Amino acid sequence: MGEGFVDYKGILEKTVGSILGAFAASIVGMDGIPLADFSKEETFDQNVFDAEIATILSTGEKAIKDTQAGELKEIILTTDNTTIIAHTIGRNYFVMIVLSGESQNIGIARLSARKLAQEFEKTLL
């Protein structure tokens, strides 16, 4: 495990502020319990999203293992108004970015999630 204090919430807030359409981000254990989170919207129930995406990742990881397709790295869920990008951090954590609205920069969000995962891996694993 890494040493020193890391302002995860501050990093998440800065990331959300730099991505068009992003309004929330979190670092979550595969058990669904968040380590840190940030949301621009007070009414957004981030704990529910964290837990549900952890369940989806666990199911996806099992499917990938059963099909011997490699190691699960990322999932993207898209609805009519929301996009959720979750990128794994080792086997025990993931970083999630949530976007909404008509204008969403999904490409930058994916790159940011990957960059955060690499950065957080140094301190979490």
What does it look like?
The protein is globular. It is an alpha+beta fold and 125 residues long. The chain is built from 3 helices and 5 strands, in the order H-E-E-H-E-E-E-H. The protein has a 5-stranded antiparallel beta sheet, with helices on both faces. Strand 1 and strand 2 form a beta hairpin. The termini are close together. The chain has helices at 8-17, 46-67, 106-124; strands spanning 22-29, 34-39, 74-78, 82-89, 93-100. It has one domain: Dynein light chain 2a, cytoplasmic (Beta-Lactamase, 2-Layer Sandwich), CATH 3.30.450.30.
Question: What labels would you give this structure?
Answer:
alpha+beta; Beta-Lactamase; 125 residues
Topology:
Elements lengths: L7 H10 L4 E8 L4 E6 L6 H22 L6 E5 L3 E8 L3 E8 L5 H19 L1
Tell me the span between the first and last alpha carbons.
5 Å
For the secondary structure, the number of strands is 5
Oligomer kind: single chain
Strands of the biggest beta sheet: in what spatial order? Answer: 2-1-5-4-3
Overall morphology: globular
The class by helix and strand makeup works out as alpha+beta
